[in-house]
Amino acid sequence: MTDARPLDADETTFIAAARAGDAARFALITERHRRALQVHCYRMLANYADAQDMTQETFLRAWHKRESFKGHAALRTWLYRIATNVCLDFLEKRDDRTPVPSGLPDAGSEVLYLQPYPDRMLPEDPQESVVARETIELAFIVAVQHLPPRQRAVLVLRDVLGWPASKAAEALELTVASVTSALQRARVTMREQLPDRRLDWRSPATHELSDDERGVVKSYIDAHERNDLDGLTALLRDDLRFAMLPDAGTSTRTARDAVDGWVSGGLFQRGHDDWRGITTTVNRMPAAALYLRSPGDPEYRLFAVAVLHVVDGKIAELTGFDATGKPWLGLPPAL
């Protein structure tokens, strides 16, 4: 990262702004990287609100360190380095940012702090979008949370961003040998967490929903609106993996357990049986935004977002999120 390189216009302006202490110009240039940095923080932290906060902290830290940018590395690389270390500092101070046992036999663990990521906030850079779905889907984000923080950072820098080992080592103040070893261990864990998933994240991958996925979301919403439990059950694979976050202990591994749990919890019973839904996407995954109308209420109120992983026309994984009080999802609060 010390080789001489020509500066682009933004970098030249950035250096001039830094030397002049021009906060307005500094903010204008760094703001162009906000979405990419926020996704990077989200991959590290699995929480949208935390990612927002750490992106802002990245800009504050960049301002305080502005004199250290000499143009030896690209401005984007310099900001990614700061963001990575901001996230590592955050994780070092928090003891509630690791998966916890689900409390159910053979049900693995739950990431209770997991939040969905609104697609409207994903980077518009086509190069970022090429890999966005593979590395923003919930299964990937959850799997990354099973890595120790520095392994997490190494995996994201090396396998997602495609940084060479030397650049990752310098960013994390590690040796190349340490980075290589951490990456090998991280890949083993990722294979264990994602045994049936594509793991070559640097190869081009589509981020468009398939007709199958769109059809399943429509059927899922229709079943809710008709209170059709048989139809809903038919959409679920027998080995469904379901979790409702941020509640603990809701993880199940069968379709019947999931449906029985919804009914015993009061859903589809009087007062919780008047549904409407709209098709959406979060984390570049098919999702249903579910709205519930209470007796006497003229409007359907946003209730939950169900994010679906569809395999062969059926729902293999369903992650539900409480959608109330989350305007950043970009969903209408009522229908």
From TrEMBL:
<dbReference type="GO" id="GO:0006352">
    <property type="term" value="P:DNA-templated transcription initiation"/>
</dbReference>
<dbReference type="InterPro" id="IPR039425">
    <property type="entry name" value="RNA_pol_sigma-70-like"/>
</dbReference>
<dbReference type="Pfam" id="PF04542">
    <property type="entry name" value="Sigma70_r2"/>
</dbReference>
<dbReference type="InterPro" id="IPR007627">
    <property type="entry name" value="RNA_pol_sigma70_r2"/>
</dbReference>
<dbReference type="InterPro" id="IPR032710">
    <property type="entry name" value="NTF2-like_dom_sf"/>
</dbReference>
<dbReference type="InterPro" id="IPR014305">
    <property type="entry name" value="RNA_pol_sigma-G_actinobac"/>
</dbReference>
<dbReference type="InterPro" id="IPR014284">
    <property type="entry name" value="RNA_pol_sigma-70_dom"/>
</dbReference>
<dbReference type="GO" id="GO:0016987">
    <property type="term" value="F:sigma factor activity"/>
</dbReference>
<feature type="domain" description="RNA polymerase sigma-70 region 2">
    <location>
        <begin position="31"/>
        <end position="95"/>
    </location>
</feature>
<keyword id="KW-0804">Transcription</keyword>
<dbReference type="InterPro" id="IPR013325">
    <property type="entry name" value="RNA_pol_sigma_r2"/>
</dbReference>
<keyword id="KW-0805">Transcription regulation</keyword>
<comment type="similarity">
    <text>Belongs to the sigma-70 factor family. ECF subfamily.</text>
</comment>
<dbReference type="InterPro" id="IPR036388">
    <property type="entry name" value="WH-like_DNA-bd_sf"/>
</dbReference>
<feature type="domain" description="RNA polymerase sigma factor 70 region 4 type 2">
    <location>
        <begin position="140"/>
        <end position="189"/>
    </location>
</feature>
<keyword id="KW-0731">Sigma factor</keyword>
<dbReference type="GO" id="GO:0003677">
    <property type="term" value="F:DNA binding"/>
</dbReference>
<dbReference type="InterPro" id="IPR013324">
    <property type="entry name" value="RNA_pol_sigma_r3/r4-like"/>
</dbReference>
<comment type="subunit">
    <text>Interacts transiently with the RNA polymerase catalytic core formed by RpoA, RpoB, RpoC and RpoZ (2 alpha, 1 beta, 1 beta' and 1 omega subunit) to form the RNA polymerase holoenzyme that can initiate transcription.</text>
</comment>
<protein>
    <submittedName>
        <fullName>RNA polymerase subunit sigma-70</fullName>
    </submittedName>
</protein>
<dbReference type="InterPro" id="IPR013249">
    <property type="entry name" value="RNA_pol_sigma70_r4_t2"/>
</dbReference>
<dbReference type="Pfam" id="PF08281">
    <property type="entry name" value="Sigma70_r4_2"/>
</dbReference>
